[in-house]
């Protein structure tokens, strides 16, 4: 049984855990991951990257995850797969380093630092300060490495970062907490419980179904309480010192609550917390044995239960020995002579532990150079020297045909919309209500990620970048409101469309208001060239939309090239606007000397524009997630002429084309039955249109990644965030086993 459960860890003998002088008192088993060397490598890689990107010197004070008995991550994730351990260590070291910094700050300063840190990790938000931007640089490459492990796993981490999983409870009011039960409620929020348990599953490459989760829910609650109490017990002295530094009389720690609410001494309070820890462990073991008696318990659930018990004991043991809780004033551990780059952490799994630490960093496919504005400026301006016409690409028909953009792709979500309110809040309610409703719906933050990714190279001032992001988001939100009316769409991201709640007239008025706000944002920047770009692309948006509406109303079928030209004007206008405005806004980039760079960047933007729209067309027909968000094959209800549909009509047999057109014309504007839509999709599938569309998308994806590589070489600075953006939208996994 033990061999089947514990595949990647070794037990620490009980006499070692409880040796003379040991602070440990746990009754749970203790195990350490066999690749503690990889865990250390991940921690040291983070320290090196913090020094490189954040440049505040705080990494020199960091004890973090490394300890005399082993790395935190080796104990917290004892059964972690070797190829995943380094990235998890990097992630947790990032969290620990940030946490250490705030302990030296006042409460208000710590709150501000926590907000800046959480904002930096939420990639769909635009950093407001340079420090946030520096911290943000640490995240994308970490996610790219996870894509090497698996797309689903990487997407989970993207979601965790986007949901602000590292936000903590400094904003909570401790005076509102009167009992240990109330404290535990707040402690769960601070501990990031959902994230912790998800990461434990990720470390083991395990999934728990809702039924499985229900089986272990009680055990998970007990373990969560034990882990929180264990942290409180061993971190008490350090947190006392932190409270003095912050000038705060209260400490969010169970030891403090025992002292203050039960009027007992510090030593008595510590003993009571110790008793609670031991009682929690006993309760877990009792319920574990009872549950394991069930003959219907799946083997993977049994393994989770056993590993969870080990995590409880192993974390306790690490806390009892680590400098973080026991010797935080001592000098941090010495850095190894050679630090493995984050891009080499996964590869350590194939190297023996004896050789893994201290080896030179493996060479990356991309250029490894400092990611600073001065490096970007020096490399770009020294590589290319020919004059540039920023609008050159618009006069190239073959390029124009390839450009499309963010409206359909941004179905991935509606981002924050800024509403400058010069009138009273009450007077603005009718006009802002539809906008605020739509902006509250889930968002993937695609456009903001593109702004941030381009800014890796262009270094637009933060205030200007925020304004430009708001301008494009205002336009996009407006276009979604109008599109839903023009297409008669009942749903937007799984919720009723704005006009279904606020009425068509009010929604049109609010959408029009957003155009005035976007124009005001550009006007505020006092840059005539930006206003010219803004108006040019706005004109393209309306012209492209007119083509789409004309074809739909008159049931006219364009060629594929005509369709791509339409989307280059309509949705491609958003991406062109982002690129052109960023180029005009940068203060460290000479447009006159960088024709090659901008030409290549425009090609990438072209590819991404087409990819966004055609991907949306394809997913609308085949994705279960799209069906839940928008309704099954909603484009067919609207009579929209999508890329796969045009392919089926123009490239398929005359018979299938006639049937497709006949059904669309006969039921134009009316909701079709599920059976009818399934038949239409089958006709497209039989005509090879879905396969050709997927092949087209996969090739575009490869082209985008190739252009990113060329841009990185040209600039001399990697852009992992741009790669993450492409990876999060990837459809390559859908083609596995389907390509002929």
UniProtKB/TrEMBL annotation:
Output the GO biological process annotations, alphabetical, semicolon-separated: alcohol biosynthetic process; isoprenoid biosynthetic process; mycotoxin biosynthetic process
Q: Which Pfam families match?
A: polyprenyl_synt (PF00348), Terpene_syn_C_2 (PF19086)
Q: Does the keyword Chloroplast apply?
A: no
**Annotated InterPro entries:** Isoprenoid_synthase_dom_sf, Polyprenyl_synt, Polyprenyl_synt_CS
Please list the GO terms describing molecular function: metal ion binding; prenyltransferase activity
What UniProt keywords are attached to this protein's entry? Answer: Magnesium, Metal-binding, Transferase
Query: Which domain of life does the protein's organism represent?
Result: Eukaryota
Q: What is this protein called?
A: Isoprenoid synthase domain-containing protein
Task: Give the source species.
Answer: Podospora australis
């Amino acid at each position: 049984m033990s061999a089947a459960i514990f595949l990647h860890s070794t037990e620490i003998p009980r006499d070692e855990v409880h040796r003379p002088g040991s602070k440990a008192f746990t009754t749970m088993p203790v195990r350490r991951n066999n690749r503690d060397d990889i865990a250390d490598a991940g921690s040291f890689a983070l320290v090196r990257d913090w020094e490189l990107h954040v440049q505040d010197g705080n990494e020199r004070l960091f004890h973090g995850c490394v300890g005399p008995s082993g790395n935190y991550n080796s104990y917290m994730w004892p059964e972690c797969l070797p190829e995943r351990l380094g990235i998890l260590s990097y992630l947790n070291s990032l969290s620990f380093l940030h946490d250490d910094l705030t302990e030296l700050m006042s409460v208000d300063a710590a709150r501000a630092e926590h907000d800046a840190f959480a904002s930096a990790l939420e990639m769909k938000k635009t950093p407001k300060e340079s420090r946030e931007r520096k911290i943000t640089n640490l995240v994308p490459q970490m996610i790219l490495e996870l894509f090497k492990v698996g797309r689903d796993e990487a997407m989970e981490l993207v979601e965790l970062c986007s949901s602000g999983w590292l936000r903590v409870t400094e904003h909570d009011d401790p005076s509102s907490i009167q009992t240990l039960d109330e404290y535990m409620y707040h402690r769960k929020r601070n501990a990031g419980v959902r994230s912790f348990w998800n990461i434990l599953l990720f470390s083991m490459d395990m999934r728990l179904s809702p039924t499985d989760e229900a089986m272990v829910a009680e055990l998970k609650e007990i373990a969560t309480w034990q882990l929180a109490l264990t942290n409180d017990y061993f971190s008490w002295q350090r947190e006392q010192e932190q409270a003095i530094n912050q000038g705060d009389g209260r400490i969010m720690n169970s030891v403090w609550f025992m002292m203050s609410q039960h009027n007992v001494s510090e030593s008595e309070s510590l003993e009571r917390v110790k008793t609670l820890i031991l009682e929690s462990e006993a309760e877990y073991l009792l319920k574990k044995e009872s549950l394991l008696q069930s003959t219907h318990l799946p083997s993977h659930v049994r393994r989770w239960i056993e590993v969870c018990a080990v995590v409880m004991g192993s974390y306790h043991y690490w806390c009892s020995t680590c400098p973080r809780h026991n010797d935080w004033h001592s000098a941090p551990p010495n850095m190894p002579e050679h630090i493995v780059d984050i891009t080499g952490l996964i590869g350590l799994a194939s190297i023996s532990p004896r050789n893994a630490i201290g080896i030179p960093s493996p060479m990356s496919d991309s250029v490894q150079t400092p990611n600073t504005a001065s490096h970007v400026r020096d490399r770009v301006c020294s590589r290319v020297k020919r004059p540039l016409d920023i609008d050159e690409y618009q006069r190239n028909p073959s390029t124009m045909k390839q450009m499309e953009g963010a409206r359909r792709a941004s179905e991935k979500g509606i981002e924050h919309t800024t509403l400058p309110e010069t009138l009273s809040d009450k007077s603005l309610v009718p006009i802002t209500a539809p906008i605020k409703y739509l902006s509250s719906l889930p968002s993937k933050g695609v456009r903001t990620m593109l702004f941030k990714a381009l800014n890796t190279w262009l270094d637009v001032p933060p205030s200007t970048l925020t304004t430009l992001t708001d301008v494009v988001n205002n336009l996009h939100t407006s276009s979604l409101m109008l599109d839903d009316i023009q297409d008669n769409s009942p749903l937007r991201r799984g919720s009723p469309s704005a006009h279904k709640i606020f009425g068509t007239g009010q929604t049109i008025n609010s959408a029009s208001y957003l155009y005035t706000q976007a124009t005001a944002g550009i006007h505020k920047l006092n840059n005539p060239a930006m206003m010219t770009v803004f108006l040019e692309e706005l004109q393209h948006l309306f012209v492209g939309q007119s083509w789409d509406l004309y074809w739909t109303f008159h049931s006219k079928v364009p060629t594929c090239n005509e369709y791509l030209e339409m989307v280059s004007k309509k949705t491609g206008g958003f991406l062109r606007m982002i690129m052109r405005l960023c180029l005009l806004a940068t203060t460290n980039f000479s447009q006159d000397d960088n024709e090659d760079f901008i030409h290549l960047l425009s090609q990438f933007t072209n590819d991404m524009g087409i990819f966004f729209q055609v991907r949306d067309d394809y997913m609308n027909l085949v994705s279960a997630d799209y069906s839940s968000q928008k309704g099954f094959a909603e484009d067919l209800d609207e009579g929209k002429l999508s890329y796969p549909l045009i392919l089926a009509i123009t490239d398929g047999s005359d018979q299938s084309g006639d049937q497709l057109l006949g059904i669309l014309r006969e039921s134009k504007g009316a909701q079709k039955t599920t059976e009818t839509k399934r038949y239409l999709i089958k006709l497209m599938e039989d005509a090879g249109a879905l396969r050709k569309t997927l092949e087209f998308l996969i090739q575009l994806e490869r082209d985008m990644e190739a252009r990113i590589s060329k841009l990185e070489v040209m600039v001399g600075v990697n852009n992992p965030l741009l790669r993450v953006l492409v990876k999060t939208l990837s459809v390559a996994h859908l083609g596995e086993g389907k390509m002929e």
